[in-house]
Automatic annotation (TrEMBL):
Residue ranges constituting the Protein HGH1 N-terminal domain according to the UniProt record: 93-279
Family: Belongs to the HGH1 family.
Organism domain of life: Eukaryota
Protein HGH1 C-terminal domain location: 285-338
The organism of origin for this protein: Endocarpon pusillum (strain Z07020 / HMAS-L-300199)
Chain segments carrying region Disordered: 338-363
Coiled-coil spans in chain: none
Pfam families: DUF383, DUF384
Biased composition (Acidic residues): 351-363
Name of the protein in question: Protein HGH1 homolog
């Protein structure tokens, strides 16, 4: 005989909307404490929840939250991510601005992006979203998500799309994803990665800063794109990667001479990013950009060493300090025609390390 909880799960597909709503409300807590109850009968409750995402708003929101909680399970993720109709439902709801629970939808899409099948987002074509004006004029799904992300809804604080940054981070782990972020798009004549750089420093959302930092780092695994990424006429990502590493320390005239303009006149209340993991991600991005001679020369001319030095001095986190040390060891070496050799002095250190050691794609 089924238990009361098992009977409650059966009500997810009841014909009466009030009963479905009560079932969703009462089952919400069990999606974290007893998730196995939703895996009965070959994931039938999960299939019911997929349909409820299109139900009335109170039902749909609870169904989405339940699926967010369940989508840490590989079988559930694959069931959701491989369903083209369900993916279209999510995209439609996210890109149409009338939805009031876009955050939860973006959380769910971010979880689904862990599935290999969701790399089809990169090339997926769909209709231009409804809206007056529409949030995007592109028929490419990832363009539409990007436009939602960069057009923050100031009059609806609950709609911030921050978790889309985690979707971008996962897509940027793929070669096709990195190519997308580095390719000028025909519909707006903009290279997508340049839309993200402004969110690296002092944005209110930790999620957004973290996801964007990871996306930038993953894109830097494309060594052939380093010149474009560093060029002032290209993506010009260097100041955006350095700003989160900079604090309010007073620098000498010698330190600031030749430094990037954005780093020279920082306000006295400038704060370094408070998350050590984000700092490490940016430091590893810089390290990736030193794999070519041109990248190292650009960073030396930009006088980034004082920023890294002060980050090392003022952040009491071992991982951050180790990442600073590795970067400084590369930048303070002497370049020679017959190879690279270490410069003398305490600042450069004495132990040579592989520049890519321990650097892995994130998310």
């Amino acid at each position: 005989m089924p238990s009361e909880l098992e009977e409650l799960v059966e009500f997810l597909h009841h014909g009466n909307s009030q009963i479905r709503q009560i079932a969703c409300e009462n089952l919400l807590g069990y999606s974290t404490t007893n998730p196995d109850i939703f895996k009965r009968h070959q994931l039938l409750p999960v299939r019911d929840l997929k349909l409820l995402v299109r139900d009335y708003a109170p039902i749909a929101k609870n169904a989405i939250i339940i699926l967010v909680n369940l989508s840490h399970d590989e079988n559930v993720v694959n069931t959701l991510a491989e369903d083209d109709a369900f993916l279209e439902t999510l995209l439609k709801k996210i890109t149409e601005t009338k939805e009031s629970f876009s955050n939860e939808l973006c959380m769910l899409l971010a979880n689904l992006a862990k599935s290999p099948s969701l790399d089809r987002l990169i090339t997926l074509a769909r209709s231009i979203p409804l809206g007056n004006p529409p949030v995007s004029s592109s028929t490419n799904a990832v363009d539409q998500l990007m436009d939602c992300f960069v057009k923050e809804i100031t009059n609806k604080p609950a709609k911030d799309y921050d978790y889309l940054s985690y979707v971008f981070a996962d897509l940027s782990r793929l070669e096709a994803g990195r190519k997308y972020f580095l390719t000028r798009q025909a519909y707006d004549d903009i290279v997508p990665i340049t839309k993200l750089t402004v969110f690296t420093d002092e944005h209110r959302s930790h999620v957004r800063r973290k996801g964007v930092a990871s996306t930038l780092k993953n894109v830097c695994f494309e060594a052939s794109a380093h010149q474009f990424l560093l060029s002032e006429s290209g993506a010009n990502i260097l100041p955006y990667v350095l700003l989160p590493l900079a604090g309010n320390e007073e620098l000498s005239d010698e330190d600031t001479e030749g430094m990037l303009p954005d780093l020279q006149l920082l306000p006295p209340d400038k704060e370094r990013d408070s998350d050590p993991d984000i700092l490490v991600t940016h430091l590893e991005t810089l390290l990736l950009l030193t794999t070519g001679r041109e990248g190292r020369d650009i960073m030396r001319r930009a006088k980034i060493y004082p920023i890294i030095r002060d980050c090392h001095l003022h952040v009491e986190d071992e991982n951050v300090r180790e990442a600073c040390d590795r970067l400084v060891q590369v930048l303070l070496r002497d370049e020679a025609d017959d190879g690279v050799k270490e410069a003398a002095g305490d600042q450069a250190g004495t132990q040579e390390e592989d520049e890519d050691e321990k650097i892995v794609e994130v998310f």
